[in-house]
């Protein structure tokens, strides 16, 4: 299964997406954004099983891919403004990285459960992620999704119009990566 002791991944192997929601009385005016963020991961193996996973995300390089909803489509200048607002929420100049480090990796139905710590904005919290592994001969496709709350990490979601329209506290983080086994 895994002949290599360490696997290295990065954004060229897949994508990490953050999807936001919109709430408040004027929510229909706002866009549900999909952001992409560059990332790197290291998987250490022991006895043909993943034993440790570390992921680092580069906050300052986030990009706004698209916005759904809103009164009109998301234009280029609006994407730039949304990016700027997101960087302010993250305080990217002061906290340029998001980190996830496992404490335990256990086999689960169709994949693995990664229990560890997530660090965002200088705050570290316990976090678990379920990943699904689809073994396709020599290729593995790895997918996962988790929910992260701004408030758990001391972040204040972007809002405007005195809070009548704001980004929801919960965002969805999803990822997919492919790798030749071994």
TrEMBL record:
InterPro entries: Lipid/polyisoprenoid-bd_YceI, TTHA0802/YceI-like_sf
SUPFAM superfamilies per record: YceI-like
Domain Lipid/polyisoprenoid-binding YceI-like: 6-180
One Pfam family linked to the record: YceI
Family: Belongs to the UPF0312 family.
Annotated protein name in UniProt: Lipid/polyisoprenoid-binding YceI-like domain-containing protein
Taxonomic lineage: Bacteria, Bacillati, Actinomycetota, Actinomycetes, Mycobacteriales
């Amino acid at each position: 299964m895994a002949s290599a002791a360490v696997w290295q991944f990065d954004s060229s192997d897949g994508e990490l997406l953050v999807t936001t929601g919109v709430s408040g009385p004027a929510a229909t005016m706002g866009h549900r954004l999909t952001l992409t963020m560059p990332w790197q991961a290291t998987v250490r193996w022991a006895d043909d099983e993943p034993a440790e996973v570390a992921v680092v995300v580069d906050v300052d390089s986030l990009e706004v891919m698209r916005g759904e909803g809103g009164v009109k489509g998301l234009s280029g200048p609006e994407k730039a403004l949304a990016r700027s607002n997101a960087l302010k929420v993250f305080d990217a100049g002061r906290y340029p990285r998001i980190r996830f480090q496992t404490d335990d990796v256990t086999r689960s139905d169709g994949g693995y459960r990664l229990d560890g710590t997530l660090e965002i904005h200088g705050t570290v919290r316990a976090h678990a992620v379920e990943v699904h592994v689809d073994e396709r001969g020599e290729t593995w496709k790895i997918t996962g999704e988790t929910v992260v709350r701004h408030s758990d990490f001391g972040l204040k979601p972007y809002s405007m119009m005195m809070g009548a329209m704001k980004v929801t506290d919960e965002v969805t983080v999803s990822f997919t990566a492919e790798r030749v086994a071994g």
